[in-house]
Amino acid sequence: MIGLIAKRFLQLILLLFGISFLVFMSMHLAPGDPATIIGGPTATESDLAAIRAELGLNDPVLLQYFDYIRGVVQGDLGYSFQNNQSVSEAIATRFPQTLNLAIASMVVAVLIGVPAGIISAIKQNSWFDVSSTTIALAGISIPNFWLGAMLILIFAVELQWLPVGGLSAPFWTIEGMKQLILPSITLGTASAAMIARMSRSAMLEVIRADYIRTARAKGVKRNAVVWIHALRNAMIPVITVIGLNFGFLLGGTIITEQVFAINGVGRLMIDAIAARDFPIVQGTVLLVATLFVVVNLLVDIIYAFVDPRISYD
């Protein structure tokens, strides 16, 4: 296990170097001039030249990249071009809202997806199985921005049961929970559909195994066979899907944050891309990449606790 963790951390470092290089070069090769955006329409050529010199934009691109990496290694992600705010501070301010939204969405996805998949497998080809499969397909197909807009229209505008958007209240309060309901359903629907399909497939494969038939032949009760013997062995692929989806949720909240006016990392990234704010874009992308790899490492570690037969030696 220690060897696995060390190997993954090495892979993480190499991956972050590669991602940082691609993002850095992409931002610098994209059309547009950050100095023009910062200076505004009234800036003169001398003003623009002073801005470029101050930001180091006149240096060769590779030199700018190495200067950036040197700062990252020292824990300095740079400063925003727009307001000279520390990138680390900007991300730290926005990240809690993105994390709360991702966790709430994952809870919704697991609570809906896992039971629906298991029941569908147990009642294969029943009306419940057909209905859940159809709903899962619809959940994967429906765009987040459309679903979010419909939920706002129905539950916030027409019925006025829930707030329109924002996450201003702490998530542990009643108001904070209300603010999380619509965006978490919007973001968690597609994940719930994927988890349901995987849970169904994994459970169908397990309940057809020889040891399940043996347990039934011995007279073990049906519920015990399903929830004790079959479920644990079917959870490995389900855990994989949950881990991957949680990693995607941490970096895929952009559309949902825009729809519900949530000031999270995704919205920060979109605003930074529009303003050609290189340090903010690079910092947010590095954060998302790091979280994705760390989540996948945690999933590998959880495997060993779910199924003792798995060894990393």
Automatic annotation (TrEMBL):
Gene3D superfamilies noted in UniProt: MetI-like
Coiled coil regions, renumbered to chain: none
Any one Pfam family match given in the protein's UniProt record, by short name: BPD_transp_1
Membrane-crossing segments per the record: 12-30, 101-122, 134-157, 177-196, 238-260, 280-306
CDD domains: TM_PBP2 (cd06261)
Top-rank taxon: Bacteria
Compartments (UniProt record): Cell membrane
Membrane protein topology class: Multi-pass membrane protein
KW ATP-binding (keyword) present: no
Keyword Phosphoprotein carried by entry: no
Keywords noted in UniProt: Cell membrane, Ion transport, Membrane, Nickel, Nickel transport, Transmembrane, Transmembrane helix, Transport
Protein family (similarity comment): Belongs to the binding-protein-dependent transport system permease family. OppBC subfamily.
Subunit annotation: The complex is composed of two ATP-binding proteins (NikD and NikE), two transmembrane proteins (NikB and NikC) and a solute-binding protein (NikA).
Protein name per its UniProtKB record: Nickel import system permease protein NikB
Naturally occurring in which organism (per UniProt): Halobacillus mangrovi
Lineage, highest ranks first: Bacteria, Bacillati, Bacillota, Bacilli, Bacillales
